[in-house]
């Protein structure tokens, strides 16, 4: 395992810099601004120039590099079959370089201050709300299985925990009675606090080891990627078995005209598209309309689309700072245009940030979280 430092990712960085711009039609930031400095290879070029001292760090080039959702949509690997992780890694490590330069110190320090103000959490969680929903989950002092309740799910979709409680009870899955809610820590890496993020994850795993936990079940794509994949990249050793709710869930209630939106972590980070497609599966499938080149729409029972890596992102799947509001709105509306090309009655979401983004936007069509359609017998 190589050290997670930009020094050790120069080959990957060079490949991203010489990228041909064939993914241009899919990159959400470029689609929103039509400016070439918002295309992934140009951001990689900036990082490379900063690393070699060809450019001095400035608020201008720093803001360009931080102006990305890290959705992995429209980046080089998508067209050339390279590793889907390379671009994310060089962006994180490039942002660490900028963080250490101090050019955005005042703005970035506000993130650290917010975490300190919330006792190690980025989001302000109402503890009474957590206790209310925690009681809905099956628990035992003897269990070594742990439900990883991420702050974003608790904050934005608290009612999902009640439905999950009934689901896990129906599966005879019982959790440790030492459950807490957690700040997963992805924002540490997104904003260039790599060492602080590594320390945060190490402390989190140590805490769960002290509780004699053997198995962790995550309920969001972000948590699954961070704990089960990204921790390995940081050379954090642990003996936990980490599985996602979608690895356990077999079916959802497939209502008529259902459109599935999976999000970036489940599609492009974790490659869970087939799992999600199979949740609303049936034997007959027919193509009904093409959206854009790689986004066919299907009628498959009650489902009207095929989830894949080309599904446009609606938003960042983490707390977004240093990002223009008008760009955030443009990306959301662009993603909605693709969804609205399908005539459907209900939009089903698998990411808590997408759910909250639609609420904040005032989206008037019907949308629900996937836990609302879990069948419990």
Describe the structure in brief.
This protein is α/β, with parallel strands linked by helices. It has helices at residues 10-17, 28-33, 40-51, 59-66, 76-80, 86-101, 105-117, 127-134, 151-156, 159-170, 186-190, 194-210, 221-233, 245-248, 264-269, 273-279, 325-340, 352-361, and strands spanning 139-140, 145-150, 175-176, 181-182, 215-218, 241-244, 258-261, 286-290, 296-299, 346-349, 367-369. The protein starts with 9 loop residues before the first helix and ends in an 8-residue tail after the last strand.
Question: Any overview of this molecule?
Answer:
It is built from 18 helices and 11 strands. The protein is an alpha/beta fold and 377 residues long. It has a 4-stranded parallel β-sheet with strand order 4-2-5-6. Strand 5 (215-218), helix 13 (221-233) and strand 6 (241-244) form a beta-alpha-beta unit. Helix 1 crosses helix 3 (40-51). The longest helix has 17 residues, at 194-210. The protein is globular. It starts with 9 loop residues before the first helix and ends in an 8-residue tail after the last strand.
């Amino acid at each position: 395992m190589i050290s997670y430092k930009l020094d050790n990712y120069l080959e990957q960085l060079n490949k991203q810099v010489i990228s041909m711009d064939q993914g241009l039609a899919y990159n959400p930031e470029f689609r929103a601004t039509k400016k070439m400095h918002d295309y992934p290879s140009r951001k990689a070029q900036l990082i490379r120039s900063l690393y070699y001292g060809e450019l001095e760090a400035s608020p201008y080039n720093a803001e360009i590099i931080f102006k990305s959702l890290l959705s992995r949509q429209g980046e080089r690997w998508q067209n050339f079959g390279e590793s889907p992780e390379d671009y994310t890694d060089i962006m994180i490590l490039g942002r660490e370089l900028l963080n250490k330069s101090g050019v955005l110190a005042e703005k970035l320090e506000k993130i650290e201050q917010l975490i300190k103000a919330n006792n190690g959490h980025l989001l302000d969680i109402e503890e009474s709300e957590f206790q209310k929903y925690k009681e809905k989950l099956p628990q035992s002092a003897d269990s070594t299985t742990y439900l990883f309740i991420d702050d974003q799910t608790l904050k934005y979709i608290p009612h999902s925990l009640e439905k999950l409680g009934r689901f896990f009870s129906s599966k005879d899955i019982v959790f440790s009675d030492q459950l807490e809610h957690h700040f997963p820590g992805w924002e540490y890496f997104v904003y260039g606090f790599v060492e602080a993020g590594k320390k945060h994850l190490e402390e989190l795993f140590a805490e769960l080891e002290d509780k004699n936990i053997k198995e962790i079940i995550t309920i969001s794509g972000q948590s699954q990627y961070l704990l089960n994949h990204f921790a390995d990249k940081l050379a954090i050793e642990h003996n936990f078995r980490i599985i996602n709710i979608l690895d356990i869930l077999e079916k959802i209630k497939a209502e008529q005209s259902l459109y599935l939106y999976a999000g970036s972590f489940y599609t492009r980070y974790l490659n869970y598209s087939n799992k999600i497609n199979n949740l609303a599966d049936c034997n007959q499938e027919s193509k009904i309309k093409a959206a854009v080149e790689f986004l066919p729409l299907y009628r498959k029972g009650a489902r009207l689309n095929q989830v894949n890596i080309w599904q446009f992102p609606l938003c960042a799947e983490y707390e977004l700072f240093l990002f223009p509001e008008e760009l955030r709105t443009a990306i959301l509306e662009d993603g909605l245009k693709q969804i609205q090309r399908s005539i459907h009655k209900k939009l089903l979401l698998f990411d808590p940030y997408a759910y909250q983004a639609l609420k904040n936007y005032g989206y008037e069509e019907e949308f629900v979280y996937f836990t609302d359609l879990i069948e419990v017998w």
